[in-house]
Amino acid sequence: MKTHLADEPSVVDRILKHIDAKSTDLSDGVWLEPVEHYLSRERFSAEINGAFRRTPTPFCPSAALPDVGCYVARDAARTPIIAIRGSDGVARAFRNACRHRGVQLVDGAGCKKALTCRYHGWTYGLDGHLRGVPDEYGFPGLDKAFHGLTPVTCFEQGGLVFVSQDNAAATPADVSDIPALFGADWKLYTTVEQEVAANWKIVAEGFLEGYHIRSTHQDTFYPVQYDNINVIESFGRNSRITFPYRRIEKLRKVPPAERKTAGMLTHVYHLFPNIMISTFSTNMLMTVLEPLAADRTRLITYTLSNQIEAAEGRAAVAQGRDFVTAGAAEDREMACAAQRGLASRANAHFTFGLFEGAIKHFHRNLSAVIDKT
Ligand code: FES
Ligand SMILES: [Fe+2]
Prior knowledge:
Helices cover about 25% and strands about 30% of the residues. By secondary structure, the protein is of the alpha+beta class. Fe (ii) ion binds near residues 206, 217, 327 and 331.
């Protein structure tokens, strides 16, 4: 499957036409999403089992595993997973549980020569094989070859480490419609974790439309961005929403083929089901929406840049991140408020209008996946 995303000059052209016409991309109809889908524990389990665990999903950027022995360990779809780069340079992923009595081998991120369990000291190689058992004579008959870490399907593509937990047959071909977003020069700058008291879908929805820019982001994004002018595209189950900055007007004087879009627009890529990648002029953010419960979500935000080597690059990256941080806090506030609105029982469903087509695409695909399982 090929990527069907428009090239940058076409996106700029569409945006300039929208600015002139005071219009935006519209979806093919209103979508009603039952409020029960945000509250129900059964629905939550179906999402985790049917969508999250069966979809090859970006686990972390490749840049988070820069060298041999570097790892990222976190829960993905409520399952402890570790991704680690082997001495052959290959990124692998395992269920993060010791094969003795299940303790996690590491938490967070770092680099190790081997993985040693803190409980009784069983040691695993970077490729997951069980290397050593202290006082092994206490385990007569233990076949070490069958007690390596339990692998999950893992591959790298376009600067992302993909993990597929319950669909072992997943291959890079399954994500070939996702464009290569991070080249080899993109480095990890920071990783930040936050918890939000809202259903993961409510958090996702905040990324997927530009209809709230003026109301929600009055003093942050709105002074530099347009309200409700977006280009909305889909590719497979994924979407891309383009948010233009007011300075994009400058490109009117530039011949279309020479138009550079850095700093003129932000793309938000929604990689189904729970990954958002936002592009800014000096950095890119990969945000994982990790569902903790039906009413709680952990956000893990990886900030990457290809300009952190130089001091002036680092300053620009820090400035860009501060800009995003202020707006993101407003989005989290709205997500929590919408979550509280569920308890009001005022709405039987949420109504997504014609400006909210990427959300419609999201719910349509999520429902299709769940109904299939
Ligand atoms: S639980 Fe890991 S060594 Fe015992
Ligand atoms: Fe927002």
